[in-house]
Every structure is written in C-alpha cells, then in structure tokens.
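Moderator note: this is an archived Q&A kept for reference. The question asked for a predicted structure of one protein chain; the sequence and the answer are reproduced below.
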Amino acid sequence: MDRTRTRTPKAVWVILAFVVATIAGVGTEYAHAARRLVKIDGSSTVFPITEAVAEEFQIEKRGRVMVTVGISGTGGGFKKFCRGEVDIVDASRPVKSVEAALCRKNGIEYIELPVAYDGIAVMVNPQNNWVDHLTVKELKKMWEPAAQGRITKWSQIRRGWPEREIHLFGPGVDSGTFDYFTKAIVGKSGASRGDFTASEDDNVLVQGIATDPDALGFFGLAYYEHNRDKLKLVPIDDGNDSNGKGPILPSAETVNKGTYQPLSRPVFIYVSKEAASRPEVDEFVSFYLENAGTLSAEVGYIPLPEDIYKRALRKFKKRKTGSVFGGKGAKMGVTIHDLVRH
C-alpha cells in the first residue's frame, strides 16, 4: 500500500463540508450540524492513524460531523481527557495510575481500545559508518539518568568507536513513546538523562537526526518509514543469547511476530464512556475499529489481527470500561489477546 498518502489540511475539510452540505440542500441546517463535533488529542505516534480515520469518516458523513485531532503527546492528551476537555485520547502506551486517578476524580470512565502495533525505531545519521547494531545494554548506558554529563562520546559505548560526541534526540516527557522506551531500556518509565534534544513533534526529531552526523534518536517506526531516505535504522539485540536471534531490525514482520524486542508495542485510543453516548462519537469509534486495519497499514503501522478489531468493537459496544493493564502504564511482553480480554 502507498504509505506516503498526502492528507488534506483540516481547514480545507471545513470548507469542503460546508460546500457538500450546501449542495445537499441542507445549508440552513449546517450551523446545527457543525456542532456535532468529536474532539481528540494525544500521541503524535497514533496521530497519523487517527487523522486518516477522521478524514475518511468526515467524507462518509458529508460534513455532518467534524473531527478535530490534536497532538499534545500521550501525557498531555490524558490530562485533557481526564478533565473532560476531549472525547478521545490517542495513546502510545497504556494509561498510568496517576492519569487513572485524575479520571476517577473527575468522574471520567474510559474504554481502552487497541488500534495497531508499532515498533520504536532507533536511528542514526546516514553518515554514521560505525554503528552496525546496538544492544539493550548499550542503549541503557546511553540513556539512563547516570549517563548525564558522564557518557558523552561514542568511544564510551563500544571499543573501537570514534572519539566523537553523542548527540541524542527523543520525544518529550509527555510522550508515551518516551515512557515506553525508558521502561523497556532503562527499566523504569520516565527514567532518563535530561541532556538530550526533546520534541513532541517527530518531524523535528527526524530533521535533527538527518542533519547531525553524530546523532542518535528514537521514535515510532512509521515516521522512519516516511523518512527512510534521511535516516539509518539500527538493529537492536535484546541480549537474550539463548534465543539465537541476534540483532533485529524493526519491520511489520518482526513486530508482528514479536521478535523485535523489547521495543514492540500496541497503540491505543481511549474513549470517554459519557462521550460515547453521543451518536457522533459512537459512530466515529465504530468506524475507526472497522477500518483501522486498512488505514493503519496505509500510513505505515502494523494492523492487529481482524478478530482483535472485532472483539474490540464488541467491547466498545458493551461500554466495557477500565484498562487491562491495571492503570500501571507500559508493560512488556503483553500478548495480542491480552489487549481485549475485558
């Protein structure tokens, strides 16, 4: 499938919706129709999938429903969601206990729905000719809090590597990708050195790595797929010698099979139970789960098995609330069927 589909700016969709409504002879009712709004915010990783679904949904609804999709990071999205400011949050990791507590405080019940798989890609600049792979242990040595001000050169990571500075790039602390990466690599969510270039916008990270020969960074695999001509993907060795895998590159196949570890993960949307009672939100989420497989693949993500989408849709229709992760955030080694066992 074409993973580089150009999507129409949201302002154009507003104009198109008005034109369609007018042509359909319902111009006098457009002001009322425009109030049927679905508000979404959260993960920049999940954004391309949700944006694709939102555009197709708005086309199908012929301007009768508007969908806005913001990017404030998973953590920023949950803050808005748990205050009742948005209907749906895009999340690249499960809800944390502090977020679950905020939702409970504000009376927000949520339905947790997996929508795709993603691998966290580790990348260097194409001019980097010394990194052929990295181990989890080496990544930890680079990123753990104790590395700040101490691990500053490539030569400190592996013998024979050059006496050049390491310049690190990664998502900001509100990012679910940051939470997942630090949990998988360092052993504790959010535990990281602070002297790296951080951004909630993955495109900023792409440019940073692409223009700096000494750079290393990480973000979702889909953003690498869209920028593979600018970046060099690094195979990761999880250090489990008994499995005989050695260094593994992230791909649709290795993420799906679970051989790219520990940086493979599901991504989610969380839907407010109260918001789901509104027809436009119910219709949008149903449309999302019915089309997520096709549209997630189109924008570079790895679809879940079809039966998982069907089970997720049944869970949504029954309004089954809560998290299968117990509100503890990222968890390694989760099976496919764990995602919808509620």
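Archived answer notes: The chain has two domains: 10-117+266-340, 119-257.
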